[in-house]
Amino acid sequence: MPRIVDLSFPIHEGMTTFPSHWHPMVEITQMGRHGIENRETRKLVLGTHTGTHVDAPSHFIPGGTTIDRIPLDKLCGPAAPVDLTFSKPKHAVTLAEIKKAVGARRHKILLLRYDWSKKWGDRSYYTDYPFLSTEAAAWIVSRGTTLLGMDAPSPDNPAHNINCKTDSPVHKILLGKGVVLSEYLANLKALGAAKEVTFFAMPLKVLGADGAPARCVAIVGGRG
Ligand SMILES: [Zn+2]
Question: In angstroms, what CA-CA distances link 83 with 23, 97, 102, 116?
Fold first, then answer.
C-alpha cells in the first residue's frame, strides 16, 4: 500500500525563523471566536520563507520567475531521496559525494537528506547545517535537475551570507539556472530506503512573490 509522508514543519507562534530582519516572526491572532462571533478565524503574519517553503528564482535573481509562475510539473513528480546523512555539521558535500549518493538515478527532483531537521528549534539549525560545495551545485544543474529539496535551511554555507563577500553562491548557481528549491523539509527519514518517491510541493500562490510556505509530501510505494 502506498504511504503518504508529511514533509512539512507545523507553523506556529514562536517557531524558528531565519535570524535576520528581512524574515518576520510568525504571529497568529485569533479573530472570530466560538460563543461570540460563533465562528473561528485567524490572522496570519508569515514571511515568504517561513518554515517549510519553496524558493522561486526571483529570490536571488532580478527578473527571475516568481512563485506563482513556477509550473506545477516542476513542483511535483518522481523524486530521488539522496542519502547524505554521513555529513557532519558544517560539511560541504563534494562533487564525488553527491555523484555517488545520486548514483545512476536520473530524476529531475532530488531530495537531499541530512536528517538535519532533528535540529529544528535549536539555534545550531541555522549555524551548523551541512551544505553543498559550488562544484556539487553545478553538477546538480548540469544533470537537468528542476527541483532540489533539502532538510536544511539552505543549500549554502551558513558562513556565506549577506555580510560575506561571497553571498549565497549556491543559491545563485541553482536559482540562476531555474532550479527551484524546497527548503526546511522535515521527516525525510520516514522515506526509509526508498530509491524513488512521488514528491509534491504546494507553495501558496502569492502573485509576484519570491517564495512561499508550502505543504510538502511524498508518496512512498505504489509505483512499478
Ligand atoms: Zn528560502
Answer: 30, 10, 8, 12
What's the gap in Å between 32 CA and the centre of ligand 1?
31
Cα–Cα distances in angstroms (integers) from residue 33 to residues 14, 26, 30, 95, in the given order: 22, 20, 7, 54
The whole-number pLDDT of residue 18 equals: 83
Sign of the C-alpha dihedral computed for residues 171, 71, 184 and 40 taken in this order: positive
CA 49 – ligand 1 centroid, Å: 5
Query: Comparing 123 with 180, which gets the higher pLDDT?
Result: 180
Q: Is residue 191 predicted with pLDDT exceeding 90?
A: yes
Q: Are 190 and 159 in contact (CB under 8 A)?
A: no
Report pLDDT for 224.
42
168 Cα: distance to centroid of ligand 1 (angstroms):
11
Distance 41 CA to ligand 1 centre (A): 27
Element (H, E) at 139: helix 134-142
Encode 151-214 in three state secondary structure.
CCCCCCCCCCCCCCCCCCHHHHHHHHCCCEEEECCCCHHHHCCCCCEEEEEEECCCCCCCEEEE
